């Protein structure tokens, strides 16, 4: 399958979660870069966007509310840190099936999506505030924590 075909199949996986909350999928872009063919697009509703990037698998997933943006990992990490949810995220997961990234993201949206899907802007912004105070440390510094 071509990347655009995989991406479209992945969007159908996510539609079951996003459409009932009033999100519409929009802005598909397709192209080629040094890493190969890519596709990206986003779900939109008012001042909220869920941005998705695909190359060989689902890559960057970014939540936007007004002028505040969080990557998927930080979004889930802040929810857990603020004790709004428990558990671990499924996305990105590891698989040879390129659609599994979309399936894993769907599971995470079912489990962790409430603040983005139906919460207030202030609730979402509180996640960003938590991330700013609790940055993720990388390398040796991250191992020592």
| Rg result | 15 Å
Helix content: 40-55%
Helix/strand order: HEEEEEHHHHH
Helix count, DSSP H or I runs of 4 or more residues: 6
What is the topology, as strand order, of the major beta sheet?
Answer: 1-2-3-4-5
| Relative strand content | 25-35%
Task: Sum up the overall morphology in one term.
Answer: globular
Main pleated sheet: 5 strands, antiparallel
- Give the assembly state of these chains: single chain
Total number of distinct structural domains: 1
Low confidence ranges: none
Whole-Å distance between the termini?
43 Å
Number of strands: 5
- Helix and strand content put the structural class at alpha+beta
Structural features:
6 helices; 5 strands; globular; 27% strand; 145 residues
Question: How would you summarize this macromolecular structure in one to three sentences?
Answer:
The chain has 145 residues and is of the alpha+beta class.
Walk me through the structure.
- The protein has about 140 residues and is α+β, with helices and mostly antiparallel strands.
- The chain has one domain (about 5-135).
- About 45% of the residues lie in helices and about 25% in strands.
- The protein is built from 6 helices and 5 strands.
- Strands 1-2-3-4-5 form a 5-stranded antiparallel sheet.
- Strand 3 and strand 4 form a beta hairpin.
- The radius of gyration is 15 Å and the shape is globular.
List strands and helices in order, with pairings:
Layout: H1 3-18, E1 24-33, E2 36-45, E3 48-54, E4 58-65, E5 68-71, H2 72-81, H3 100-112, H4 114-118, H5 121-133, H6 139-143
Antiparallel strand pairs: 1-2, 2-3, 3-4, 4-5
Helix pairs in contact: 1-3, 2-5
């Amino acid at each position: 399958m071509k990347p655009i075909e995989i991406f479209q199949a992945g969007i159908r996986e996510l539609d079951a979660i996003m459409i009932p909350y009033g999100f519409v999928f929009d802005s598909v872009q397709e192209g080629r870069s040094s890493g190969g063919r890519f596709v990206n697009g986003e779900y939109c509703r008012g001042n909220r966007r869920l941005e998705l990037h695909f190359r060989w698998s689902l890559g960057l997933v970014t939540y936007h509310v007004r002028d505040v943006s969080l990557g998927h990992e930080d979004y889930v990490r802040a929810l857990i840190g603020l004790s709004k949810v428990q558990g671990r995220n499924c996305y990105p997961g590891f698989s040879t099936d390129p659609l599994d990234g979309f399936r894993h993201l769907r599971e995470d949206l079912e489990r962790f999506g409430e603040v983005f899907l139906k919460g207030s802007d202030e609730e979402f912004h509180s996640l960003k505030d938590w991330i700013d105070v609790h940055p993720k440390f990388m390398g040796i510094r991250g191992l020592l924590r």
